[in-house]
């Protein structure tokens, strides 16, 4: 015969000791409730075609199982997975792939962001505020004025060249004993202007390829401001959520480019991203800074190889991409060498 014994909370100095699992219970319940709520809304909206949409677009659903987890766990963003797979493997039009990326990240990254907040993960809120403001400007300008003028293959290679340039100094820093900041050392008028500008550039890239503000801001946080990857990653996730919502609203309500085909892709992916992205965000909290950096470097390598294999390269695209690579590498090198935001504690 077994007796179930109800344990009383331990007390130390008249204070209840909170077990580590108790800290997870509320965020877990919150994420579960959020997923259930999204599923109910999704089913009500897509019914009676809910299952047929997934069956018809199973490749999209499968892609975003992995894409959403990566989006929540890293600064790479789900769009970085969706865009190349959609355009080169599933042969979906680049414009539709970009709009899908914005639409699905507005769900997945928002769910991941809410999970990050529920878990009380440390993030750089001043960066989020000012970079998001710039991101709204950038995504609006690039979506309306620049995207129609530039070929998709060039846009994708420019994005690849930019993040490949970031991978080099990040690799060097990762294998060095380095210093990092857990919080922003200071944040004045200069920093506000910096993040407004960086956010504008990142938002511009998001408007062109469906993601970008996350990895661009992440690179500046890590290389220049020397923020730990454990802080920079969730910060970049929230930044991408805000920018994706803005981009999705722009295409859905003003540009009227969220067509029926993209909507079905979106509906096929919503049920999985609302689980995958928060799960990725949670897993990120269990990794140290070096592990996060290594995973990101590997993802950038995959991004580079897939772009070189799948994108038809012309002399013009190669020349422009190499120029962008060198320019960004120079900027990243200067950031990494800067001592303005000198860290105050030892890295991992």
From TrEMBL:
InterPro entries assigned: TM_pro_TauE-like
Keyword Transmembrane helix attributed: yes
Protein location: Cell membrane; Membrane
UniProt GO cellular component terms: plasma membrane
Transmembrane annotation, as ranges: 28-45, 65-87, 99-121, 127-150, 157-175, 195-225, 237-254, 266-284, 291-311, 317-333
Main location: membrane
Keyword field: Cell membrane, Membrane, Transmembrane, Transmembrane helix
Keyword Transmembrane helix applies: yes
Membrane topology: Multi-pass membrane protein
Similarity comment text for this entry: Belongs to the 4-toluene sulfonate uptake permease (TSUP) (TC 2.A.102) family.
Protein name from the UniProt record: Probable membrane transporter protein
